[in-house]
Amino acid sequence: xxxxxxxxxxxxxxxxxxxxxxxxxNIAIRNGKFxxxxxxxxxxxxxxxxxxxxYVSPGWIDSHTHxxxxxxxxxxxxxxxxxxxxxxxxxxxxxxxxxxWPIFKSHIVDAGYLNIFYSINVSPAGQITxxxxxxxxxQHYDVNRLRDIMVKDSKHARGLKLRYGAxxxxxxxxxxxxxxxxxxxxxxxxxxxxVTNPPCPMEEIVSKxxxxxxxxxxxxxxxxxIIDENGKVKEAVFEARKRGVYxxxxxxxxxxxxxxxxxxxxxxxKPDIISTDLTQNGIFSNMCWGLPVVLSKWLNLGLALxxxxxxxxxxxxxxxxxxxGIGTLDNGAAANATIFSVADRPFHxxxxxxxxxxxxxxxxxxxxxxxxxxxxxxxxFPF
Length: 383
Hints:
By secondary structure, the chain is α/β, with parallel strands linked by helices. It is 23% helix and 29% strand.
């Protein structure tokens, strides 16, 4: 009897963003991990997936979602909503704060199939509703409670989250960002910073961010943006990238603007991460739908397929320091993989700013494998 393999994905077009390669090949999984496969070796194979004509990549990561179901109004059901979208890992973007973290940890992070990580909101209550902003008053920051969470759950906690919009910080002043940076320095952790409708010039914001911090909704179109009055990407934005600050599209329904995206791409300012900022109100809507549609949009905006896939696999995993080899196809890494196709399929989007977008090619998830288990398979995929 030959060596055992639990799952063999054969004849696939393998996109390996870590190595920068795209080639036909096979991927083997045993005991929840990727293992070497040799064509001249005899194996006992439990499940074969013939991916001829399909692509396979490391499991997709949606690194900005809101999944605190039943406690927050925006929270969606993570496994139910995300796994059929090809997503194997997700990062919740500040739905919970120190006051709500225990239930978030026990009922969300530890309760599903997905690999779930999160940023802790500086607001103790987290982001409970979209009806009104969370309280980000720095006098309520609790460094000891935050440190306790980050120590207890170092595997999943990925730093702090601050929404830095004029409507959120109104009444607290522009010191909120400075105080959050001081807090992050004390905790030795990164910040994920929401920047829509910013209360001050964008160049002032990006100049404060530290290496390793992530600015999301970077292509937003409210008030000050990354584009100057001459249609050029602001020099401070390029300088921040050189300094080690990362930029996440986090498109959502309203947090992207084509009048910003298109000149930015033309000037070489592409996202480090592509994510959705998906909520209960955005999922399956024409304005966002979910990660496959957002990835397809960026493909149609001119990014190469390999760039799009790297921005939802290897890049977010590296930037957010995800464990267990997530974002890679390395031997010994946790076996998270997404099989997908690219089809000629016209689609139309309209965001909450009233902008419209037409695409011609659609990225379609076919199989989602999480930690060595097939958790979703499209009926159009061979079985």
